[in-house]
User: Fold DoxX family protein from Luteimicrobium album.
Amino acid sequence: MKPVRLLARVLTGSTYALLGADAAREPGGRVTAAGPTLEAIRRIVPLPDDDTVLVRTNGAVMASAGTLLALGILPRTSAVVLVGSLVPTTVAGHAFWKVDDPAARKAQRVQFHKNLAMIGGLLLVALDRG
Assistant:
């Protein structure tokens, strides 16, 4: 079972490492997409006003935690950090309920549910004692 566990960690962690690094380097449209969600969070939690910095920071957190997960360093902790990062990312980036165009809404709903599946996998890693 160890080779399968190793492969699963590498496949899962490397995805976050690559996508997180991309978001940290080139936040692009993610900043606009994250704006409304960040504003809602600011009503509860004091966050910096610079959305670009927050998107880049979130990407760096994903890249770091994904790398640690892929390497098998603190995998359970890394998985919890990734869940914490992915929840607001999913709400901000794939708010299908706000999309009017049926095709675009469907695409965003697919991405939203894909992220829910990724969160589920990370929760399994977080609970894994093997």
